[in-house]
């Protein structure tokens, strides 16, 4: 019995000592973790804390740190949180974070994480666990952190997947690992569509390379982060017609890291698989310049009916005045004498006419008026004629899709633009859906039977190409548009760990003016790589000469006048003969 009592006393004393050691250890661990969090806060690693789990030292530290803190004890949230970019995630163990909200996962994907390891978890296995989720800003501490002060930080591009960092050492715990990728591949696929991406064969290495304002940006990024570009050409084996639509879908399916193409932005419900906007543009139509007035219509266009009526009235007034002043009587007036007044007809046509002898002052004044009218009318019509022949008037520009319905043009589009064009007020009879190759050929040869959708960026090259033409054929309409605000971004994998580096690089390249430089030299690159030509696609000798059929109205008026003169001449010949016959019969 005595031995039993001694054993119980010894067990009770041992338990009290163990409880005392535990109570001392836990505060020591909290103090060490508090010091670590203060150090990270001083280094501006975080300004918001997100704590997953409950049975560890992290929740109790939240009251001591004067930063916004979100406690998720269940390991998952039902809401879409708007966390800042400097959020530090604290997990009580490797399984504490069980976030299921997709939008929250996207926002926290690049956040830094500090995990408290319990049990027999090795740092290497923890790094592997998070790397499978494309999360690499990971640091760990074990439960003996208060004794050894060792922080384990995951390192991607090293032989050992983690690094031991002593709390007392002045080493960074979290580093930007993707600033030097040590030759790691970046999966991509090119959309060879000038001027954004154009393929060429390197004469030195024989390698296929790409150039353009889209390709150059990605090429520079690969060089900057010391990576390699891996083109996933095997994805195109079962595809007949490749375009940026396929590349966007492959990026959304995590088959590509960054696509070397424009992303399909107008069909996206969210922009998770699209980068920050690279360029802002518009997606409108290039339309043939309005037709010029045919030469055959110019001669009638300069003779407008109101002006002719006014001239006819002036002619009749002056003719009446001239006859009355000469004859000094109204009896000499008749329709024939007024309309066929020899002096007025010659004077208005700027022809010489006989001046009556011993003319009075009134008659001379009328003759001066005739000369003045002849000078005004002939000068005016000659100026109109020469101006219209040199630069004929053009039809009005199209300002709405109703004008397209009335015009002779049809709208040529590709299969990728069908949905966008269907939303426009255009009948199906006016729309022609073509394959990409045929569409590109027609638009590239400036076929003026169609109007074509084109981005403002692509139009820049067409505009420079038309500078080599005798005169431009097309113009870019800012009123007839598929999309007035077109976003040009890159197809990108949703959980790309270096997404922020790529977007930062993209903005810096644009800020430094490299994007503008690439856009300005796009047409020169297209010429050098035979993607374009300086050939003039204008119809040969268009409006360079006046043909006989263009003088239809001139000859018509000429022969009409000649016929009228012949009738008058015959009438004058027949009148004396009639008088002689009348006299013979009278005798």
From TrEMBL:
Subcellular location, principal: membrane
Leader sequence segment: 1-16
Subcellular location field: Cell membrane
Keywords, ordered alphabetically: Cell membrane, Glycoprotein, Membrane, Receptor, Signal, Transmembrane, Transmembrane helix
Residues that span the membrane, as ranges: 298-325, 365-384, 551-574
Membrane topology qualifier: Multi-pass membrane protein
PANTHER family documented for this protein: IONOTROPIC RECEPTOR 20A-RELATED
Name the record gives this protein: Ionotropic receptor
Source organism: Drosophila suzukii (Spotted-wing drosophila fruit fly)
């Amino acid at each position: 019995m005595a031995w039993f009592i001694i054993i119980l006393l010894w067990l009770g004393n041992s338990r009290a000592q163990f409880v005392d050691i535990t109570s001392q250890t836990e505060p020591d661990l909290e103090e060490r973790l508090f010091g670590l969090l203060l150090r990270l806060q001083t280094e501006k690693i975080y300004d918001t804390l997100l704590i997953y789990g409950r049975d560890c030292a992290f929740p109790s530290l939240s009251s001591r740190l004067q930063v916004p803190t979100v406690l998720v004890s269940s390991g998952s949230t039902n809401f879409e949180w708007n966390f800042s970019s400097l959020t530090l995630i604290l997990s009580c163990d490797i399984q504490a974070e069980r976030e299921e909200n997709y939008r929250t996962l996207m926002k926290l994907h690049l956040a830094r994480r500090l995990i408290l390891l319990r049990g027999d978890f090795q740092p290497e296995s923890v790094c592997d666990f998070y790397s499978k989720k494309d999360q690499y800003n990971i640091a760990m501490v074990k439960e003996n952190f208060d004794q050894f002060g060792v922080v384990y930080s995951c390192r991607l591009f090293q032989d050992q997947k983690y690094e031991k960092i002593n709390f007392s050492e002045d080493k960074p715990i979290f580093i930007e690992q993707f600033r030097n990728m040590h030759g790691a591949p970046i999966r991509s696929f090119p959309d060879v569509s000038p001027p954004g991406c154009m393929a060429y064969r390197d004469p030195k290495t024989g390698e296929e390379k790409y150039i353009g304002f889209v390709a150059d940006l990605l090429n520079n990024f690969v060089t900057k982060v010391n990576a390699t570009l891996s083109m996933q050409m095997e994805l195109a084996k079962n595809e007949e017609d490749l375009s940026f639509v396929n590349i966007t879908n492959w990026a959304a399916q995590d088959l590509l890291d960054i696509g070397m193409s424009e992303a399909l932005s107008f069909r996206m419900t969210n922009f998770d698989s699209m980068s920050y906007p690279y360029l802002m543009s518009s997606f409108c139509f290039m339309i043939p310049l309005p037709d010029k007035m045919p030469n055959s219509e110019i001669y009638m266009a300069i003779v407008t009916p109101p002006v002719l009526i006014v001239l006819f009235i002036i002619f009749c007034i002056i003719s009446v005045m001239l006859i009355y002043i000469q004859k000094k009587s109204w009896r000499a007036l008749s329709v024939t004498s007024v309309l066929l007044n020899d002096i007025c007809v010659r004077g208005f046509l700027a022809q010489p006419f006989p001046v009556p002898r011993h003319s009075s002052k009134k008659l001379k004044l009328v003759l001066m008026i005739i000369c003045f009218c002849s000078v005004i009318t002939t000068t005016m019509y000659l100026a109109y004629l020469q101006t219209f022949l040199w630069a004929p008037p053009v039809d009005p520009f199209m300002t709405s899709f109703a004008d397209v319905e009335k015009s002779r043009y049809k709208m040529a589009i590709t299969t990728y633009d069908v949905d966008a064009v269907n939303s426009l007020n255009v009948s199906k009879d006016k729309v022609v859906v073509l394959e990409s190759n045929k569409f590109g050929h027609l638009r590239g040869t400036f076929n003026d039977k169609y109007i074509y959708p084109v981005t403002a960026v692509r139009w820049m090259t067409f505009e420079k190409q038309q500078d080599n033409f005798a005169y431009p054929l097309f113009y870019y309409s800012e009123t007839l548009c598929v999309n007035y605000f077109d976003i040009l971004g890159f197809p990108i994998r949703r959980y790309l760990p270096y997404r922020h580096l790529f977007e930062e690089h993209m903005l810096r390249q644009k800020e430094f003016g490299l994007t503008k430089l690439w856009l300005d030299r796009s047409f020169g690159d297209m010429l050098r790589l035979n993607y374009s030509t300086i050939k003039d696609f204008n119809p040969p000798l268009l409006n360079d000469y006046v043909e006989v059929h263009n003088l239809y109205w001139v000859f018509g008026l000429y022969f009409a006048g000649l016929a009228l003169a012949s009738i008058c001449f015959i009438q004058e010949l027949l009148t004396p003969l009639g008088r002689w016959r009348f006299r013979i019969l009278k005798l």
